[in-house]
User: Fold this.
Amino acid sequence: MDGLMQPDLPTYAEMQNILTELKHVNEQLRRQVVELQAKPVGNEQQFKVLANDETRILTINESQFRSTTKILEENKVEYHRYQLKSEKPFRVVLRGINHDSDIGIITNELYD
Assistant:
């Protein structure tokens, strides 16, 4: 090949080592999930194992949600969570009010 460099490909033994490491990490993650499932967080918490080897944890209230995320963080488990309704900003649309109106007056009227 004129002037082109061949990329350094891992040897068979190196690939085997990488594969062994990946299997070890996967097994550790599975054990962590089993440990998490064994810890009582609430009465009606549900666990679902999905086809892509992910586990979905469904909580029924905010307390369970916070306890579960705390356990996941303590065990350094990577996870994704959705925003709680209580954490979402509350927005209000006032119809029929001019956008140039003084916000202070509107706020005072709402509090009265």
The mean pLDDT is 80. The chain is about 45% helix and 5% strand.
